[in-house]
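[User]
Um, tokens okay?
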Amino acid sequence: MRATLLIAEDQRLFRQSLRLLLERERDLRVVGEATDGREAFDLAMKTKPDLILMDVDMPKLDGVTATRLIRGCLPDVKVLMLSVHDEDARIVAAVQAGACGYILKDADHAEFLRIIRATYRGEQVHSTFMPDGFARNAVSALQEAGSGPAAGVALLTEREREILACAASGRGNKDIADQLCVSLDTVKTHLHRIYRKLGVAGRVEAILTYLNSK
């Protein structure tokens, strides 16, 4: 059975070269190409690939945020992050968003294919091109401790979970304030704290994280 892949990469030459590399392999099939984070999300919802190769730096919606949104809707989809960067913070952010791994773009062809196949099989593989030290330890710690949605939601207070549940049910801030008998400013303050604790950019991502933790 061939693994289906979606490539999300804004640099045309790298994206097309990667597609050519993958389509030479009999066990791999590219089902789409995205040039920005929003298109990656839309194509993922449409094609439901087995694995997504996701660039970290993309227009409209960055790769880490796009990964978090996609994994919130399609938890079985595996994501491998692609980047020219080797900063520890980016590796940690990618894993927290739900990525299975992280490959630097200067990896050779054999390395790309090895990691793609291992990830598709469900194996935990780290690129030999990933920086040593804290980065690897941070990824391992997050995987062992559990960095998924449930772990993030567990950090919320009872009141914060209550407000997030109301938001997930479709209620606006004023409705939430009326239902809980608190001020509108109190609701907004709680929501900003929720976003910070979950590491999300706003309401939609927070709701997706909450729903995926159930």
Strands lie at 3-8, 28-34, 51-55, 78-83, 101-104. Confidence is low (pLDDT under 50) at residues 131-136. The chain has two domains: 3-145, 149-212. The two ends are 31 Å apart (CA to CA).
